[in-house]
C-alpha cells in the first residue's frame, strides 16, 4: 500500500530539510532521506528524520509540503538546506 508523507530532516549542525515522499509500507521504516544535492552522505548518515504528517493522496501531501515551504520560506531561510520552495503539485516528481 502506498503511503504519502511530509518529513523533516534535522542535522547535527542545526540545519533542516523539508520534503515529501511516497513509499510502500511504514514511513517510519522508510530509509529515504531527501533529494538535496548539497547535503553530504556523511550528514545524511547522522541526521534525524521526523515524519510530520501522513496523507491519503500524494497531492494532499505535496499541498502540505507547499504550505510548510511557504511558512518557513525554506528557499531563503538560512536554517534550511532546501534550495527551492515547492509551490504547487504541477511539477511534482512522483
Topology:
Elements: E1 2-10, E2 16-24, H1 41-46, E3 48-55, H2 58-72
Antiparallel strand pairs: 1-2, 1-3
Keywords for this entry:
3 strands; alpha+beta; 2 helices; 94 residues; three-stranded antiparallel sheet; 28% strand
Structure description:
It contains 2 helices and 3 strands. It is an alpha+beta fold and 94 residues long. A 3-stranded antiparallel sheet has the order 2-1-3, covered by helices on one side. Strand 1 and strand 2 (16-24) form a beta hairpin. It starts with a strand and ends in a 22-residue tail after the last helix.
Gross morphology is globular
Total number of strands: 3
Largest sheet: 3 strands, antiparallel
N-to-C order of helices and strands: EEHEH
Q: Unreliable segments (pLDDT under 50, ≥5 consecutive)?
A: none
- How far apart are the first and last residues' alpha carbons, in Å? 15 Å
The strands making up the biggest β-sheet line up spatially as 2-1-3
User: What's the rounded overall pLDDT mean?
Assistant: 91
Question: Which strand-content bin applies to the residues?
Answer: 25-35%
Q: Structural class of the helix and strand makeup?
A: alpha+beta
Estimated radius of gyration: 13 Å
What percent of the residues sit in helical stretches (DSSP H or I)?
Answer: 10-25%
Count of DSSP-assigned helices: 2
Amino acid at each position: 500500500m502506498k503511503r504519502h508523507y511530509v518529513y523533516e530532516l534535522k542535522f547535527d549542525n542545526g540545519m533542516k530539510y523539508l520534503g515529501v515522499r511516497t513509499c510502500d509500507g511504514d514511513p517510519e521504516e522508510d530509509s529515504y532521506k531527501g533529494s538535496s544535492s548539497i547535503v553530504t552522505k556523511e550528514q545524511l548518515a547522522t541526521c534525524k528524520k521526523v515524519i510530520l504528517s501522513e496523507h491519503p493522496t500524494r497531492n494532499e501531501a505535496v499541498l502540505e509540503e507547499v504550505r510548510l515551504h511557504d511558512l518557513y520560506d525554506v528557499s531563503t531561510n538560512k536554517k534550511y538546506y532546501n534550495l527551492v520552495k515547492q509551490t504547487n503539485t504541477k511539477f511534482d516528481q512522483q
